[in-house]
């Protein structure tokens, strides 16, 4: 069952990975998900779209909502400039513990700051942590929280003209209220990147990029 995926993945990682190498960790996780069992990581196909958007944006302050095992945190951190700040929020403590070890083993501790708790409680704390705004936000947590959390980010003044919101799973499992919100909101300019569900070539999914124009 998907229950316990994170623990089985961690066991596999401990036995096979080359420490201090984020790309090797990413490849190891993808290989496990293709050959043993798939987990809800963004994966290599949608991950490439995410990589391209991060490289195009060249963000200095980044937020991820939904760390899970740390896979996308590594993909993002790998493409950030030296002086950037990257925060990832995970509400499930068991997932966070696995992500912490995976990020540490990959040698990316100093690039990624993980916060454990509900996104609705974490988001209001960023101003107090010296964050003026986020240049890029990767939304990949509970689909019902996509819309309320983006609304909260704007309310907290954490979005600035040009801030980029990247949302996973906008087709499968889907987040219809979020898609309706960003596409019909004059404050955002959205682009859809059709792709496939992680580790499932035969299932359609997509990434939505929404630029905040304020
Ligand atoms: O809960 C999620 N949070 C973040 N990302 C997800 C995801 O990428 C999924 F594919 C899925 C998913 C994959 C296969 C299914 F049959 C159902 C959900 C779930 C999540
Ligand atoms: Mg996802």
Write the SSE topology.
Layout: H1 5-16, H2 22-35, H3 43-57, E1 61-65, H4 71-77, E2 85-90, H5 93-105, E3 113-116, H6 119-122, E4 134-139, H7 146-155, E5 159-167, H8 170-174, H9 176-183, E6 188-196, E7 204-212
Parallel strand pairs: 1-2, 1-4, 2-3, 4-5
Antiparallel strand pairs: 5-7, 6-7
The structure holds ligand 7JU and magnesium ion (MG).
Describe the overall structure.
It is built from 9 helices and 7 strands; from the N terminus they run αααβαβαβαβαβααββ. With 214 residues, the protein is an alpha/beta fold. A 7-stranded mixed beta sheet has the order 3-2-1-4-5-7-6, sandwiched between helices. A hairpin with a 7-residue loop joins strand 6 and strand 7. The radius of gyration is 16 Å and the shape is globular. The termini are far apart. The site of magnesium ion (MG) has 5 residues, from loops.
Give the assembly state of these chains. single chain
Summing up helix and strand content along with how strands pair, one would put the structural category as alpha/beta
Shape: globular
Q: Share of helix among residues?
A: 40-55%
Order of helices and strands: HHHEHEHEHEHEHHEE
How many strand elements? 7
* Order of the strands making up the biggest sheet: 3-2-1-4-5-7-6
Largest sheet: 7 strands, mixed
- What small molecules are bound in this structure? the ligand O=c1[nH]cnc2c(O)c(F)c(-c3ccc(F)cc3)cc12, magnesium ion
Radius of gyration: 16 Å
What's the total helix number?
9
Q: Hey, roughly how much beta strand do the residues contain?
A: 15-25%
Poorly predicted regions are none
In angstroms, what separates the terminal alpha carbons?
43 Å
Global mean pLDDT: 98
């Amino acid at each position: 069952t998907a229950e316990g995926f994170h623990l089985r993945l961690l066991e596999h990682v401990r036995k096979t990975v080359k420490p201090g190498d984020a790309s090797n960790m990413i490849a190891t996780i993808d290989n496990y998900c293709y050959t043993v069992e798939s987990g809800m990581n963004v994966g290599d196909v949608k991950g490439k779209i995410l990589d391209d958007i991060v490289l195009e944006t060249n963000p200095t302050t980044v937020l991820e909502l939904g760390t899970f095992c740390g896979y996308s945190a590594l993909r993002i951190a790998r493409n950030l400039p030296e002086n950037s700040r990257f925060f990832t929020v995970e509400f499930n403590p068991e997932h966070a513990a696995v992500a912490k070890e995976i990020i540490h083993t990959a040698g990316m501790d100093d690039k990624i700051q993980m916060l454990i708790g509900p996104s609705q409680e974490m988001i209001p704390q960023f101003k107090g942590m010296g964050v003026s705004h986020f240049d890029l936000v990767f939304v990949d947590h509970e689909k019902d929280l996509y819309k309320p959390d983006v609304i909260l980010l704007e309310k907290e003044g954490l979005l600035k003209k040009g801030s980029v919101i990247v949302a996973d799973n906008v087709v499968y499992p889907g987040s219809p209220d979020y898609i309706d919100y960003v596409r019909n909101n004059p404050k955002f300019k959205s682009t859809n990147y059709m792709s496939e569900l992680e580790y499932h070539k035969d299932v359609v999914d997509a990434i939505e990029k929404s630029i905040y124009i304020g």
